[in-house]
Amino acid sequence: VASVRETGLAVELVVAGTPRPLTPHVSLVAYRLVQEALTNTIKHSTAGSVTVTLTYEPDEVVVHVSDRGPRRANHHLTPQGTGAGLVGMRERVAAVRGEIESGPDDDGGFRLRARLPAASR
Predict the structure, then answer these.
(1) Residue 11 near residue 19 (C-beta atoms within 8 A)
(2) Tens digits of per-residue pLDDT, 24-43?
(3) Edge-to-edge strand list for the sheet holding 49-56
């Protein structure tokens, strides 16, 4: 989050619930989701701000990243199958048996929401 803020993008980090240790694999997946979502905002969006929310629920952690700007002209969020971007996010989430959804939101921005198990399933 701090390094993305240095690019000039305003990033709000919200933590809800009681934070607790996650398994190393789930923790890494959550980190990579946030990292990739912020990178995609910089690359593909005209957004001036983005919100990252981590919600600790009893059995899972929810990662929600939402920007507030339309995509750049001539930029398409088409997965290339390289293991990066949206495809890579889906693969990482599937590896921990979580769920992910992403796409444009009603306000013209883009959002990603992933539900990851708080412990190994």
Answers:
(1) no
(2) 999 999 999 999 999 988 88
(3) 10-16, 49-56, 60-67, 110-117, 99-104
- Bridge partners of 55, per DSSP, are 16, 62
Phi, psi of 40 (to 5 degrees): -65, -35
Nearest CA to 119 among 9, 5, 20?
20
Tens digits of residue pLDDT in 49-94: 999 999 999 999 999 999 987 777 655 544 444 446 788 899 999 9
- Rounded Cα–Cα distance for residues 66 and 87 (Å): 18
As a whole number of angstroms, the distance between CA 1 and CA 21 comes to 19
CA 13/CA 86 separation, integer angstroms: 21
**DSSP type of residue 48:** S
pTM of the model: 0.84
Asked whether 76 and 36 are in contact (CB, 8 A), the reply is: no
Distance of CA 88 to the CA centre of its chain: 12
Q: What's the rounded Cα separation, in Å, for the pair 14 and 64?
A: 10
